[in-house]
Design goal:
CATH architecture: 2-Layer Sandwich
Strand order of the largest sheet: 3-2-1-4-5
Radius of gyration: 15 Å
CATH superfamily: Ribonuclease H-like superfamily/Ribonuclease H
């Protein structure tokens, strides 16, 4: 299974592609789309779309996993974040790739084992699970990889439950 995780943000949108082969996880690609608040919003959204669409086309993931919106400082921030999420979903849909969404609590629970884990803990566990020499920086990349890992773990659990029910 090849999963692309996307951590949407209005300043940094992290992405990571993780491959699962049995119990082994491998980081295939990871990066961040850095956005400038000085650029008009349509230009920032186009930049996110183009980078994500390019990454999807290059790696052809089986699914794209995205974090659900959970918190915004104000309504304006929530709307901007929603627009970035929409663009990320559009990039996946335009490529014919299914989208899965996960709550932040579920992501942290799946990766760290504790839903209220700090960013540093997520970074450390992502590095450990993917056998990386150093924790991914900036944290948005670690978050995107964590989202992909969460989907892999969730899909594996559902698959095992389905097999056991037969």
């Amino acid at each position: 299974m090849l999963v692309m995780g996307i951590d949407c943000g209005t300043e940094y949108t992290g992405f990571g592609v993780v491959q699962s082969a049995g119990r082994e996880l491998k980081c295939v690609a990871a990066g961040v789309v850095k956005l400038s608040a000085r650029d008009p919003l349509p230009d920032r959204l186009r930049r996110v779309f183009n980078q994500l669409a390019e990454t999807i086309a290059e790696h052809e993931p089986d699914v794209v996993a995205i974090e659900e919106v959970f918190y915004a400082e104000n309504a304006k921030s929530a709307l901007k974040l929603g627009q970035v999420r929409g663009v990320a979903m559009l990039a996946a849909a335009a490529a014919g790739v299914a989208v899965a969404e996960y709550a932040p609590l579920a992501i942290k629970s799946a990766v760290v084992g504790y839903g209220r884990a700090e960013k540093v803990q997520v970074q450390a566990m992502v590095a450990r699970l993917l056998k990386l020499d150093t924790p991914p920086e900036p944290p948005d990349i670690a978050d995107a990889l964590a989202i992909a890992i969460c989907h892999i773990h969730t899909a594996g659990t559902l698959q095992r439950q389905g097999a056991a029910a037969r």
